[in-house]
Amino acid sequence: MIGRLNHVAIAVPDIDKAAAVYRDTLGADISDKVPQPDHGVNTVFINLPNTKIELLEPLGEGSPINKFLERNADGGIHHICYEVDDIIAARDKLVENGARILGSGEPKIGAHGKPVLFLHPKDFNGALVELEQA
Amino acid sequence: MIGRLNHVAIAVPDIDKAAAVYRDTLGADISDKVPQPDHGVNTVFINLPNTKIELLEPLGEGSPINKFLERNADGGIHHICYEVDDIIAARDKLVENGARILGSGEPKIGAHGKPVLFLHPKDFNGALVELEQA
């Protein structure tokens, strides 16, 4: 069912500083900072030859990554995102297998303009997993 | 400097259970379990079209992932591994930029039989980063 690894997301307290680490210390190709007010984050993409890293910084009140950053003050690896062909079919198969979907259980439009779902970390080895319809 | 994302490692308390989640619930192609006594872990690889996920379970006394699992009883995303062409050149550039290398600072032969280094999470946004000479 799962296809490509779409991205690994790293939540950080200061995205400009984090982006500079990737650009200057690790010599990576990075995007400009993109505010995503609907998702409560600023994003910077690190473009690797086979996938990307998504840096996330809280934006506005009640950002969904605030709690994670309270527990991980330096930042940390927040989630991994796998691509699926059909997110509704994927969701139905997961629910049938007893896996829990976060939120309403209905896909939302994610930061890349495509339908996404988040899966309960307790059902996936403690890792927060996002599915994105490719 | 950094190239492909070689793998994302997920540390788990029970690798057979974790591998079954990826095989049965997420429908992924998984490898057999490989004991890596030199590294204190059992490994299972999840083969994705563009990269791989490495499941890690403690093996023997004093496994390097024991502490992580004490803090994260369900498991969690443990590290990300980027490929570099020349690990000594990469190491020297990182040190020049003030980044800290874990351990002796000299590359060791990693779980894939290639030279690797681990970088200090405090210098990389709270994320544990492995570099592997591709």
Mind sketching the topology for me?
2 copies of one chain form a homodimer.
Chain A (H helix, E strand, L loop, with lengths): L4 E7 L3 H11 L3 E2 L3 E3 L4 E7 L4 E7 L7 H6 L4 E9 L2 H10 L11 E2 L5 E5 L9 E5 L1
Parallel strand pairs in A: 1-5, 6-9
Antiparallel strand pairs in A: 1-6, 2-4, 3-4, 4-5, 7-8, 8-9
Fourth CATH level, the homologous superfamily of chain A: 2,3-Dihydroxybiphenyl 1,2-Dioxygenase, domain 1
Instruction: Label the structural class of chain A.
Output: alpha+beta
CATH fold name of chain A, please? 2,3-Dihydroxybiphenyl 1,2-Dioxygenase, domain 1
**Inertia-based shape of chain A:** globular
Q: What oligomeric arrangement do these chains adopt?
A: homodimer
Q: Approximately how much beta-strand content do the residues of chain A carry?
A: 35-45%
Number of distinct beta strands of chain A: 9
Q: Helix content range of the residues of chain A, please?
A: 10-25%
Textual characterization of the structure:
The structure is a homodimer of 134-residue chains. In chain A, a hairpin with a 5-residue loop joins strand 7 (108-109) and strand 8. In chain A, strands 1, 2, 3, 4, 5, 6, 7, 8 and 9 form a nine-stranded mixed beta sheet that branches. The first copy, chain A, has 134 residues and is of the alpha+beta class. Chain A has helices spanning 15-25, 66-71, 87-96; strands at residues 5-11, 29-30, 34-36, 41-47, 52-58, 76-84, 108-109, 115-119, 129-133. Chain A contains three helices and nine strands; from the N terminus they run βαββββαβαβββ. Chain A binds chain B through residues 1-5, 8, 10, 12, 18, 21, 24-28, 48-51, 53, 55, 72-77, 79-80, 82, 93-94, 97, 99, 121-127, and chain B through 1-5, 8, 10, 12, 18, 21, 24-28, 48-51, 53, 55, 72-77, 79-80, 82, 93-94, 97, 99, 121-127.
